[in-house]
């Protein structure tokens, strides 16, 4: 048998009146109310409240309110989250919009970085691509011209070191030719004599030539 | 009447079927309107909040995980937005008594019984309107919506014991307020 104090009983009075109390609690309330004036008064008050509430007239709702509500909700959705393109993307597509946009921005940034930063990949630097497309004579011309310093300033670090280590690019060319001539002389090529007489190389030592060839081999031109 | 469950409709909405949202609105608009209307006695205010509720549902449905039922989730939004509106306005309305006095003065008097009835209705509405927030929302969900305490507990995230106490105090205050007003 449940024995409860007034505070506990009063919390059950509403349930007692609206019939939602379990049997055991219901019996406990009945026993308590039969002997407690305070709780009996509380129960009377609750009865009066429910009587009054039942008497309250139902509120009015304008005619057709519910049949017009849905379009008005859609109007508000459009107004607050209007789609500037005149159409609505499906929700599943909207979910992918943010991550796809973020990836696109990253790819774009990476592309821009590679395009405008020659140091990012020396083999694809802007200067290297220009040089690769030029005939040999033009490379010499550029190197010998007064504007070669500006070309040097745009070159990548390994290219700069190579070009700075060569005092005269024309001499490099001549060294290469001399190497060919020596080779051809050793092997008795008919053009050897002609080349030897047309291009004297007394001012270039063998060490110079070897040094240049080694540097050329070490470079990814 | 559409036979699909709330969860099926939500799944369809997430897959791009906007029509599923419309069905959910039509299914719950009347219930939600009345919850809001009990909390905000003015129709225009209630209408404004009801629209906001469904706009919020539209925007948030994709993040609905189904931890609680859609119905519980929807009621929670409705109660919270209604209380926000009450806090925002903080206006105490003047009730129909002024109109009754005006009618009396103009000679266009209502029968006594009707006036008493109107006065009781006015006092009850005023009493509900003046309840503390917690008691008010519990009262509306329990008395008008007839929701079980367990369901209200999920909506308001409060213990059942606390709800029972709030409901009891709400009912008692309404009765006391009306009795005092009619004296």
Descriptive account of the structure:
The complex is a heterodimer of chains A (221) and B (183). Chain A has twelve helices and no strands. Chain A is rod-shaped and about 135 Å long. Chain A is an all-alpha fold and 221 residues long. Residues 189-194 of chain A have low confidence and may be disordered. Among the domains of chain A are: 6-55, no CATH class; 122-218, no CATH class. In chain A, 10% of the residues are buried. Chain A has helices spanning 6-18, 23-35, 37-55, 65-80, 91-116, 126-133, 136-144, 148-154, 157-165, 169-186, 192-198, 206-218. In chain B, α2 crosses α4 and α4 packs across α8. Chain B contains nine helices and no strands. Chain B folds into two domains: 1-91, Rna Polymerase Sigma Factor, Chain: A (Orthogonal Bundle), CATH 1.10.1740; 104-183, Arc Repressor Mutant, subunit A, CATH 1.10.10. Chain B has 183 residues and is mainly α. The model of chain B is unreliable at 91-98 (pLDDT under 50). Helices cover 77% and strands 0% of the residues of chain B. Chain B is elongated and about 60 Å long. Chain A binds chain B through residues 10-15, 42, 45-46, 48-50, 52-53, 55-57, 59-62, 65-66, 69-70, 72-73, 76-77, 80-81, 88, 90-95, and chain B through 13-16, 18, 22, 25-26, 29-30, 33, 37, 41, 43, 47, 50-52, 54-55, 58-59, 62, 117, 120-121, 124-125, 143, 161, 164-165, 167-168, 171-172, 174-176, 178-179.
Short synopsis of the structure:
Chain A has 221 residues and is mainly alpha-helical. In chain A, 71% of the residues lie in helices and 0% in strands. In chain B, helix 2 crosses helix 4, helix 2 crosses helix 7 and helix 7 (133-144) packs across helix 9.
Give the radius of gyration of chain B.
19 Å
Number of strands of chain A: 0
Low-pLDDT segments, ≥5 res of chain A: 189-194
**How can the largest sheet of chain B be summarized?**
none
Approximately what portion of the residues of chain B adopt beta-strand conformation?
Answer: under 5%
């Amino acid at each position: 048998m449940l024995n409860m104090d007034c505070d506990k009983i009063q919390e059950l009075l509403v349930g007692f009146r609206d019939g939602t109390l379990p049997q055991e609690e219901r019996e406990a309330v009945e026993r308590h109310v039969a002997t407690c004036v305070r709780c009996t008064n509380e129960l009377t008050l609750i009865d009066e409240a429910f009587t009054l509430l039942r008497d309250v007239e139902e509120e009015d709702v304008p005619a057709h309110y519910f049949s017009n509500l849905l379009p008005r909700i859609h109007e508000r959705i459009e107004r607050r989250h209007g789609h500037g393109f005149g159409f609505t993307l499906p929700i599943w597509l909207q979910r992918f919009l943010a991550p796809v946009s973020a990836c696109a921005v990253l790819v774009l940034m990476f592309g821009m970085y590679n395009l405008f930063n020659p140091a990012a990949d020396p083999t694809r630097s802007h200067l290297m691509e220009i040089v690769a497309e030029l005939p040999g004579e033009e490379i010499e011309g550029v190197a010998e011209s007064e504007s070669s310093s500006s070309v040097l300033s745009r070159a990548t670090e390994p290219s700069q070191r190579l070009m700075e280590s060569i005092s005269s690019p024309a001499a490099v060319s001549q060294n290469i030719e001399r190497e060919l001539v020596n080779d051809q002389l050793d092997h008795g090529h008919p053009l050897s004599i002609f080349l030897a007489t047309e291009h004297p190389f007394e001012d270039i030592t063998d060490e110079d030539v070897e040094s240049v060839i080694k540097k050329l081999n070490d470079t990814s031109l | 009447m559409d036979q699909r469950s709330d969860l099926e409709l939500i799944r369809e909405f997430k897959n791009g079927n906007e029509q599923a949202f419309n069905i959910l609105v039509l299914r719950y608009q009347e219930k939600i309107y009345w919850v809001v209307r009990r909390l905000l006695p003015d129709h225009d205010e209630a209408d404004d909040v009801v629209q906001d509720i469904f706009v919020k549902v539209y925007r948030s449905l994709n993040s609905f995980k189904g931890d609680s039922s859609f119905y519980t989730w929807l009621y929670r939004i409705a109660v919270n937005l209604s209380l926000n509106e009450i806090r925002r306005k903080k206006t105490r309305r003047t009730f129909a008594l002024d109109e009754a006095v005006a009618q009396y003065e103009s000679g266009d008097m209502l029968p006594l019984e009707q006036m008493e009835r109107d006065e009781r209705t006015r006092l009850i509405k005023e009493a509900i309107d003046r309840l503390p927030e917690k008691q008010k929302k519990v009262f509306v969900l329990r008395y008008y919506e007839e929701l079980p305490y367990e369901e209200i507990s999920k909506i308001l995230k409060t213990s059942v014991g606390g709800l029972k106490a709030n409901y009891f105090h709400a009912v008692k205050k309404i009765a006391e307020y009306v009795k005092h007003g009619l004296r």
